[in-house]
Amino acid sequence: MSWARRALVEDRGWLTSEEFTSLFGLCQFMPGPNTLNLAVCVGARFQGASGALVSLLGLLTVPFLVIIALGACYRHYGELPAIRGALHGIAAVTAGLLLAMGVQMGADLLKKPLLLIFSAAMLIGVLFLRWPLLSLMCALAPVSMWVAARRYCG
Amino acid sequence: MLSPLAFGGASSVLPELHRLVVESHHSMSDATFARLVALSQAAPGPNSLVFALVGWQVAGVAGALAATVAISGPSSLAIYFFMGFWEKIRGTRWQRIIQTGISPLAIGLVLASGCIITRGADNSWGTYGLTVATVVAVLNSRLNPLWLIGLGAVLGMTGAI
User: Fold this and answer.
1) Within this chain, do residues A6 and A51 fall inside the same structural domain, yes or no?
2) DSSP collapsed to 3 states, B99-158
3) Chain A window 110-139: which residues touch B at a Cβ cutoff of 8 Å?
4) Structural domain boundaries enclosing A143
């Protein structure tokens, strides 16, 4: 994302810093991969639907081919101890990156402690109850928004 | 089908992907799932390509294409049509309510993703230590995550963990 900002705002000047921040907020909030959302927004802004499609394909095509090639390598060489070990180490780091991201996002919630209950409920629902995401979303989102409306968005 | 639920990005639907391919369909083990996530993390491009990789592992190139369309299609349509509406309600109470109400759920999902990958990847004190060290490093420095990923790869490759 920081790379996207550099390219769009600083290098190309396609968006002002404020425009980027506003679009970024929307893309983070809306469901879907953030970078893809941003590609759709920027593409649509300049060329409508076709622009959105082109920027989406532009963002995905090469990495898609790369990842399939990597997958093929993994299938052939994945059992080599060195590769296995490297991926194992990366996986441990990835887990840490995700947890840290969750903690950073959660820090903003400390001012709204009541809402932490919904984070905890989601965590428990996914990890221990293993409920489908759709059911959890439908159950938790309305209550969470209701609490947000009553307590924090007066 | 997961796409419209991916509040907070691709990492928040990892648990659901895990539930489907590891727990329901038994298409791969916990450890394979964690390794594929690691592979996509180390590769260039959007993180959402983990779906392509998992789709590829399950059903070849067709699976990869289908998974990519499934994760990016619906949400892209949603944001395309939602852009205008969001601009219109910018700064209103409704926008704050939606945003404030959804974010705790996204946080729970991202933390769950972290736990699931920990479960698949960490099986020794070394790997647990690496996960904890990563959390500490991210929270206390502005180090580029790529360095940490590289460090994890080297430690794992040399058998240090």
Assistant:
1) yes
2) HHHHHHHHHHHHHHHHHHHHHHHCCCHHHHHHHHHHHHHHHHCCCCHHHHHHHHHHHHHC
3) 112, 115-123, 125-127, 130, 132-134, 136-137
4) 112-154
Q: Are residues A135 and A103 in the same domain?
A: no
Contact B138 A74 (CB under 8 A): no
Taking CB atoms and an 8 Å limit, are B161 and A92 in contact across chains? yes
On whether both A73 and A4 belong to a single domain, the answer is yes
Per-run averaged pLDDT (10 residues), chain B, 161 residues:
70 86 87 89 82 90 91 89 82 84 87 90 88 94 87 89 74
Residues A13 and A72 in one domain: yes
Count of CB atoms situated within 10 Å of the CB of A100: 22
CA distance B50 to chain A (A): 8
At A126-142, the pLDDT tens digits run 999 988 888 898 899 99
Strands (E), B18-122: none
Burial (Cβ within 10 Å: 0-12, 13-18, ≥19) of residue B133: middle
Nearest residue on chain A to B47, alpha-carbon basis: A33
**Interface predicted TM-score (ipTM):** 0.85
pLDDT digits (tens, 9 = 90+) for A55-72: 999 999 999 999 999 888
My answer on whether A48 and A36 are in the same domain is yes
Residues A56 and A119 reside in one and the same domain: no
What are the DSSP calls for A25-88, one per residue? HHHHHSBS-HHHHHHHHHHHHHHHHHHHHHHHHHHHHHHHHHHHHHHHHHHHHTTSHHHHHHHH
Q: What is the pLDDT of residue A96?
A: 93
3-state class of B26 per DSSP? coil
- Alpha carbon distance B98, A142 (integer Å): 9
CA dist., res. B7 & res. A148, Å (int): 17
Tell me the residue length of chain B: 161
